[in-house]
């Protein structure tokens, strides 16, 4: 079966491609680096020719409100237009996206989902919690000088390997024409996650808890980013993942 993975060179994309190739499928890892650009449309029709399944794992190079909205709208439209004959369109979105529409990034994901739902193409949307690998990015986006001001709200972080397992499984299953949720094995406060990350990586920045600190534009509560009771849970705990990362040099 021909499967096209848009963003097939990215974090989740590359791991999903690897899993599906191991199962013997004809998988195209599509991205601007391989001549497929969903913004300009270059190479998209050729990439999708004969594909039964499209998995959209692209991400916007910019998280700025207007840029990210334009990215997911333009990319979604181009992909769905070229993929009108596809039997299953799959996209990865975010747990709590609909609750957090004060965030420009979440509005962009909503726009992406609405395009998929209105396309008439059979689809599955996977809502995931935040990846373990994304925690450093969250810390960075809330850093001023040596201080990282963060909401102490719960997150339910999940390893990219667990996410890719689900994406590969969904690609080989029938479309649900709806949304499924996945999350990590445990809830941890964002401030605790980043404190553990900094300890493991010898990062000298100070973590400060502030319930009003924004997460990509919105305040969080303890349920905002946590998966529902029916969510499928990954196996890899944050601390176990952290202990498997290459050692970091202590800064002088
Ligand atoms: N971060 C989280 O915790 C989280 C949680 C839930 C859901 N998600 C969603 O998961 C998805 C994948 O995230 P990720 O972290 O795996 O992404 P990533 O590592 O940043 O990879 C992004 C991919 O998008 C490709 N891309 C960028 N511009 C493109 C274009 N114009 N046309 C085609 N491909 C393009 C990149 O290709 P190049 O390598 O060629 O640049 C790359 O392969 C995103 O949609 C995100 O919203 C993320």
Automatic annotation (TrEMBL):
User: Which Pfam families does this entry report, sorted A to Z?
Assistant: NAD_binding_10 (PF13460)
**Looking at the record's lineage, which domain of life comes first?**
Bacteria
Q: Which InterPro entries match?
A: ComplexI_NDUFA9_subunit, NAD(P)-bd_dom, NAD(P)-bd_dom_sf
Q: Name one GO molecular function term.
A: protein-containing complex binding
- Tell me the Gene3D superfamilies matching this sequence: NAD(P)-binding Rossmann-like Domain
Q: Which residue range or ranges hold the NAD(P)-binding domain?
A: 7-171
Q: What is this protein called?
A: Uncharacterized conserved protein YbjT, contains NAD(P)-binding and DUF2867 domains
């Amino acid at each position: 079966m021909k499967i096209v993975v848009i963003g097939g060179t990215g974090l989740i994309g590359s791991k999903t491609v690897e899993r599906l190739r191991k199962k013997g499928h004809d998988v195209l890892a599509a991205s601007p680096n391989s001549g497929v650009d969903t913004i300009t449309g270059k190479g998209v029709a050729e990439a999708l020719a004969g594909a039964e399944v499209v998995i959209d794992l692209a991400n916007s190079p910019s998280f700025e409100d207007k840029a990210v909205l334009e990215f997911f709208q333009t990319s979604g439209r181009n992909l769905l237009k070229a993929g009108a004959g596809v039997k299953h369109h799959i996209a990865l979105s975010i747990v709590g996206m609909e609750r957090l529409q004060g965030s420009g990034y979440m509005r962009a994901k909503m726009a992406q989902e609405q395009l998929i739902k209105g396309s008439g193409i059979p689809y599955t949307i996977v809502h995931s919690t935040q990846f373990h690998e994304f925690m450093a990015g969250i810390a960075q986006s809330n850093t001023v000088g040596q201080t990282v001001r963060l909401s102490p709200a719960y997150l339910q972080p999940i390893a990219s390997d667990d996410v890719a397992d689900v994406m590969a499984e969904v690609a080989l299953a029938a479309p649900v024409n709806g949304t499924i949720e996945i999350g990590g094995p445990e809830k941890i406060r964002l401030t605790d996650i980043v404190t553990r990350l900094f300890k493991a990586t010898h990062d000298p920045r100070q973590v400060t808890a502030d319930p009003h600190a924004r997460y990509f534009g919105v305040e969080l509560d303890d349920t905002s980013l946590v998966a529902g009771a029916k969510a499928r849970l990954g196996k890899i705990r944050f601390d176990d993942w952290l202990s498997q990362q290459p050692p970091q040099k202590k800064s002088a």
